[in-house]
Design goal:
The complex is a heterodimer of chains A (326) and B (177).
Chain A lengths: L1 H15 L5 H29 L3 H5 L17 H4 L9 E2 L13 E3 L2 E5 L14 E7 L4 E3 L3 E4 L15 E7 L8 E2 L13 H8 L5 E12 L2 E10 L8 E8 L3 E5 L13 E2 L7 E9 L2 E9 L12 H11 L1 E4 L2
Parallel strand pairs in A: 1-2, 12-13
Antiparallel strand pairs in A: 2-5, 3-4, 4-16, 5-6, 6-7, 7-15, 8-11, 9-10, 10-14, 11-12, 14-15
Chain B lengths: L2 H4 L14 H20 L2 H18 L1 H4 L4 H19 L23 H8 L3 H12 L4 H8 L3 H23 L5
Classes of the chains: A alpha+beta (326), B mainly alpha (177).
Chain lengths: 326, 177
């Protein structure tokens, strides 16, 4: 009887629900995309106008690599990310937007992302900025970091399988169930320390730990490092989830087939092979957990890939510095 | 160029072949609002999270249109939005009774008894009832959506049915309900 009442209620209620204007919702969605872009452009313009040398000073410390010449400040238009990511590239000095799914090449030079700015609002004092330097060609921004899918000729677009991927993301949750289908799942709370988080990330099954979690000092903060491979072969319609990066639903996960498993989130790592190495550092940045991850094939640098790739990847990781917006 | 490099050739992004956002909106909006009304017990909150889910679908663009099940994508997003909001408000739990009374859908008339009965259930029980009966999801999908084991959903469903029957008891035999 209760079932009948519920179904009658459903039919009646559906009839009564007023329909809002879809165009209003679409306008708001479109506006949010524009705000992301405008905020980044405005910040870059103001930073460069104020100092002109901010980029250089961010990497000027004991083990920094030589800062690149970034030339004249990029214009707002030059920094704008467009929907079709296969044309042109983002100039040095621009902000790259966390959680933005546009796929764009990045020129050689310096870039920054505000990884905790998941609302993509205009910058305000105290925002964490992660700066890094790209020294090679064919690197691209993928929404959570930079990657490289090829090293010569026509390098295609966002559906290419990258062989190097660097992530700089928050970690807002961990997963109990690793193989997941298309829909995002609720997550478990992250442990309180970087070392505990690193241990949690490699809880079996499905993970082969190459270097056990250990406490280190990295990127100027207390951190924990762990190196592993993902050995689990999930069913073809699922992907292996590593961590929740952005709320409410974007996870970092591994899949072999671009069409398999999760299709809602662009933040994917698809090594296409079981022996991909994941180097993961978990940082405590003033109480906020952050993950920097690099994944690459164990034979990186051999003829199959570009011989300079290992050096470029190392340089990129060494160049990562954190600043706070004043 | 060797075979390995050939294997790295670009994959073409498949053009979304499914419905447009407008078609999904026409087909699913009302249904989702009623489902979320059942889940959250407040029509304003239900409309708000479902509309926010459509805004996020717009932001996601092709990412959303490539999803296998658009309604499931929107439902999960809306439920997560509600959960996140509620988590942020958990510190206000002690003053919940002082907050505004939940709002109902205008024109429900006698069916408002069902909403009232749903509100007597715990959050966990209300969620499984709403997803099972209002969204017509099988138990496995309810479990998937809520991120809990199938067995848990089954037991909650059983207890929720009993509680709901109790709450709806005075109404069960009435012809006008």
């Amino acid at each position: 009887m209760s079932e009948r009442l519920l179904k009658e209620f459903r039919e009646r209620a559906e009839f009564l629900v007023p329909m809002p204007d879809l165009h209003e919702l679409q306008r708001e969605g479109t506006q949010r995309r524009r705000v992301r872009i405008a905020a980044g452009a405005a910040l870059v313009a103001s930073v460069l106008a104020l100092g002109g040398t901010v980029v250089a000073t961010t990497i000027d410390d004991e083990n920094a690599i030589e800062p690149a010449q970034i030339g004249p400040p990029p214009s707002a238009d030059a920094c704008e990310l467009v929907a079709n990511g296969t044309h042109g590239s983002v100039p040095s000095g621009c902000e790259l937007h966390a959680q933005v799914d546009e796929w764009r090449y990045v020129d050689k030079g310096h870039y920054f992302v505000r990884p905790f700015n998941t609302d993509l609002r205009p910058a305000r004092p105290g925002d964490l900025e992660a700066w890094f330097e790209i020294r090679g060609d064919y690197w691209y921004w993928w929404g959570g970091g930079v990657g490289k899918a090829c090293h010569a000729g026509a390098c295609g677009g966002p559906e290419m399988a990258p062989y190097i991927r660097v992530a700089i993301t928050p970690i807002t949750g961990v997963h109990g169930l690793r193989c997941q289908g298309p829909d995002p799942r609720p997550v478990q709370a992250v442990p309180s320390s970087p070392l505990a988080i690193a241990h949690r990330l490699v809880v079996p099954p499905g993970i082969d730990v190459l270097e056990a979690p250990r406490s280190v000092q990295k990127f100027g903060y207390d951190a924990a490092h762990v190196r592993f491979t993902v050995t689990e072969q999930c069913p073809s319609d699922q992907a292996f989830v590593l961590w929740r990066a952005f709320e409410p639903e974007d996870d970092i996960f591994v899949r072999d087939d671009i069409t398999a498993g999760r299709t809602d989130a662009d933040i994917t790592i698809e090594p296409g092979r079981r022996d991909h190495v994941f180097d993961v550092w978990v940082l405590d940045v003033q109480g906020e957990p952050l993950v920097i991850s690099a994944d690459y094939p164990p034979d990186l640098g051999q003829i199959k890939y570009h011989e300079e790739d290992p050096a470029r990847l190392q340089e990129l990781l060494d160049s990562i510095r954190f600043e706070f917006t004043e | 160029m060797n075979e390995d490099l050939l294997s790295l050739k670009p994959r073409q992004r498949a053009a979304p072949a499914g419905p447009t956002l407008g078609e999904v909106f026409s087909r699913s909006y009302r249904r989702l609002v009623v489902q979320l009304y059942g889940v959250v017990g407040d029509i304003c909150e239900a409309e708000d999270v479902v509309q926010e889910a459509f805004v996020r679908a717009t932001v996601a663009g092709n990412r959303f249109l490539r999803a296998d099940n658009h309604e499931a994508w929107l439902r999960t997003t809306a439920i997560n939005l509600h959960r996140n909001r509620w988590r942020k408000l958990r510190n206000l739990a002690k003053i919940r009774h002082r907050l505004a009374e939940p709002t109902d859908l205008e024109g429900l008339d006698e069916h408002v008894a069902v909403v009232s009965a749903l509100r007597t259930l715990s959050d966990a029980h209300r969620q499984v009832i709403a997803l099972y009966y209002l969204a017509d999801l099988p138990v496995a999908e309810v479990a998937e959506t809520l991120g809990c084991p199938v067995g848990t959903v089954k037991s909650r469903l059983q207890r929720a049915r009993e509680s709901l029957a109790l709450a709806l008891g005075p109404w069960e035999g009435r012809a006008d309900v």
